[in-house]
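Revision sheet: structure tokens.
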Amino acid sequence: MDATAIICDYAQVNGGKLYIVGAAINLVGTPSAAPPHPISLSVGVLVTIPWNAHNQVHRLKISLVSEDAVKIPIAHGLPGQVVPEEDEGSVTAQFNAGRGPLMQAGEATTLPLAVPLNVAVPSLGGYSVIVELDGSEMTRAKFRVLHSAQISSAVNT
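Predicted:
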């Protein structure tokens, strides 16, 4: 299996298609000079499921980590729900993709996902969205958070 992650302003899945707006972000401005630093982004994810991986249960995990490997919570479990410690703060899901009636032998399926990242990060600097499938890291999308004034002064000089 394979996955691609794209940092963007907004992402939505509708009718089996991934719609993204303002894609390929690598710098994010935050209005707050002092921590915490609020950010509002989305990550569009495309999971490619090869022919031989259909009709099986798979596990997906999406996490946000700082450049110092500190996990930033992007999701919370339901009250009373027991969440394994390694999954706390991550978006997790199980899925089982069946083979469609029009598929030909050897074809892959694409599973689109959209995950909002409306969080406050503890510091300015680098962050990565990590997508794992069945316990293996498939992709990492990196971006850097700067104070909006830093971006404005760099653009205006």
